[in-house]
Design a protein that fits this description.
Length: 381
């Protein structure tokens, strides 16, 4: 029993130390000379491991972007400040699955506990970004008395148009496709804003509705005792809901099947995202129902679906084709040993690394994801 208690005590100490080290790292400014070395390191790794680096951008153009970046880095920067400089260069390669990942601030157990007692700030409403304008589309709790249809012009004196233009430069889709960006900016806008400004307890919004411009202060609110109690007692998810990947927070299904006509001749499947959660069971059950109903037509609704699990996509396609198919090609690499040059355990504790070592080979086999690592930033493609 003593050995078990000692193990958990050791685990707690390592966890606290990891949080502290991570946050100190985020605050520390890295010398400009070292950042320029990281820029060179990044380009070197891309040229070594990327099989089609100059597919959408010529070598002289990309050379110029990396050289220009080094010239403007003249002062020390924090890791995430450096991310905002380097990320647009990576995005210029125009490969959707190649992007930098940030180092988020970590929170101690006590901080996490405190955050759980508060409501979100910006996430209390739903938004739609059209071009470089932001509109409120839903506000179920009437947060800040802001009505749907309201345009948000500024957040804390920063123009929304300036923010969206800045954030759009941090990611790309494949090639010259523009469809992905308009959806992705809606998903990530406040992630980027929080990266720059941290978790705020209040914000000043400049809004416009019916040609009337107003200044509104929104504040993070404490959850009531009733709300906290309700969160603790979550309703049980049924097996039927699990198969349809039911989300308790939004009270909606990720995937669903229904028939649109009284004679069941038209089947309709809606898929919000490919999550892989019990997807094989869902498609097996759904297509069995479709066959038994004798449906003639199938409407597959994947509007606003940005992708996700290759495994689920492969499973779905297997029901749509009566021929052998290859949906996912074998990963292309510059050499047979490319996969050996990966630091799978960066950012992990001693204990989590043990579990990562066991599970990671299976993860790679299932997802075909290859990682490149710099000393301070991580590239994923």
């Amino acid at each position: 029993m003593k050995s078990v208690l000692f193990f958990f005590l050791l685990l707690f100490v390592f966890s606290c130390n990891s949080v502290r080290q991570n946050n100190l790292f985020l605050q520390k400014k890295i010398p400009a000379s070292e950042l320029r070395e990281d820029v060179d390191f990044t380009y070197k790794k891309l040229k070594r491991f990327h099989p089609n680096l100059y597919w959408y951008i010529s070598k002289p153009q990309l050379d110029k972007k990396f050289d220009s970046l080094k010239k403007i880095i003249t002062e020390p920067l924090t890791p995430n400040q450096f991310y905002l400089k380097l990320s647009p260069v990576i995005a210029s390669i125009k490969e959707g699955h190649l992007r930098l990942r940030t180092f988020p601030r970590q929170y101690s157990k006590s901080e996490q506990k405190e955050l759980k007692t508060k409501k979100p700030l910006f996430a209390m409403m739903e938004y739609k970004i059209i071009d470089n304008r932001m509109f409120v589309t839903d506000n179920k709790q009437n947060f800040g008395n802001i009505k749907p249809g309201t345009e948000i012009l500024k957040i804390n004196n920063e123009n929304i148009s300036d923010l969206t233009q800045r954030y759009r430069r941090l990611f790309s889709s494949d090639g010259y496709n523009k469809t992905f960006q308009k959806y992705f900016i809606n998903l990530t806008f406040f992630n980027y804003y929080t990266l720059e400004n941290g978790f705020l307890d209040s914000a000043k919004l400049l809004t416009k509705l019916d040609n009337k411009v107003s200044e509104i202060i929104i504040r993070r609110q404490k959850k009531t005792e009733q709300e906290l109690t309700k969160e603790k007692v979550q309703p049980k998810v049924t097996s039927f809901q699990k198969i349809q990947d039911y989300d308790l927070d939004s009270k909606s299904y990720n995937r669903s099947l229904k028939f649109l006509s009284s004679d069941s001749s038209i089947a309709y499947i809606k898929i919000k995202t490919f999550s892989a959660t019990l997807s094989k069971a869902f498609y097996s059950e759904s297509f069995s129902k479709i066959r038994k109903a004798g449906s003639v037509y199938l409407i597959l609704d994947i509007r606003d679906n940005l992708g996700g699990s290759l495994s689920e996509i492969n499973t779905l396609y297997s029901y749509l084709s009566d021929k052998k198919f290859t949906l996912i090609k074998v990963p292309e690499m510059t050499s047979k040993t490319s996969g050996m040059h990966q630091n799978y355990f960066r950012g992990q504790t001693v204990f989590s690394s043990i579990f990562m070592a066991i599970g990671y080979p299976f993860f790679l086999a299932g997802n075909g994801t290859w990682l490149l690592f710099s000393d301070r930033l991580k590239l994923e493609y």
